[in-house]
């Protein structure tokens, strides 16, 4: 069965981690979680409260990482998922994150990213010449990174599938599953 990597860190958006994690398992993929170190990650929940100009942040669930980014051999994985939240703000500074994520883009492997994940990709030049969705406040980051910001629930650019935020999950994962089924299909046990 193909292996899918999810890259997360502390303050990753809870829903943007768990929804793809569980959806990929349901589809039959082996899912591994990589973080800057092997540890129990602490996620956050972003919600919308009337009267706030932005979202509010609350403590979310915890989940262990399977391996440190320094231990990741990206060639062993068929695809990667990068959830949003504040985690990407720190991941982008990690040299092993840069090494791992660049492999997926250079190899043309499927990549799913959502919300603030774009701020970890844009400074690396990985969005240059690409159409991508992200949280609307990240539009300047996408554009400064040479990408074209698209305000949509699922944007497919080759093997890259992006979305704005957790409320886009159904469209985002539906589009990503179409890419995965083509590029890294799971063989049916029913034969």
TrEMBL record:
InterPro entries linked? C56_PfpI-like, Class_I_gatase-like, DJ-1/PfpI
PANTHER family named in the record: DJ-1 PROTEIN (PTHR42733), DJ-1_THIJ_PFPI FAMILY PROTEIN (PTHR42733:SF2)
Pfam families recorded for this chain?
Answer: DJ-1_PfpI
For this chain, the family text in UniProt reads:
Belongs to the peptidase C56 family.
Mind giving the lineage of the organism this protein is from? Bacteria, Bacillati, Actinomycetota, Actinomycetes, Kitasatosporales
Under what name is this protein listed?
DJ-1/PfpI family protein
Output the superkingdom of the source species.
Bacteria
Where in this chain does the record put each DJ-1/PfpI domain?
3-177
Coiled-coil residues = none
């Amino acid at each position: 069965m193909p292996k899918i990597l999810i890259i997360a860190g502390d303050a990753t958006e809870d829903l943007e981690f768990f929804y793809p994690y569980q959806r990929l398992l349901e589809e039959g993929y082996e899912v591994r979680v990589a973080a800057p170190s092997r540890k129990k990650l602490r996620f956050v929940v972003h919600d919308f409260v009337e009267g706030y100009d932005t979202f509010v942040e609350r403590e979310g669930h915890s989940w262990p990482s399977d391996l440190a980014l320094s231990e990741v051999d990206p060639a062993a994985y068929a695809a990667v998922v990068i959830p949003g939240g504040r985690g990407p703000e720190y991941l982008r500074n990690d040299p092993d994150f840069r090494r791992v994520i660049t492999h997926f883009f250079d190899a043309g492997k499927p990549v799913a990213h959502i919300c603030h994940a774009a701020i970890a990709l844009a400074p690396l030049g990985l969005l240059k010449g690409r159409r991508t969705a992200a949280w609307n406040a990240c539009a300047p980051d996408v554009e400064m990174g040479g990408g074209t910001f698209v305000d949509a629930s699922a944007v497919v650019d080759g093997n890259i599938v992006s979305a704005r935020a957790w409320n886009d999950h159904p469209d985002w994962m539906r589009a990503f599953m179409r890419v995965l089924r083509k590029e890294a299909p799971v063989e049916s046990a029913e034969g």
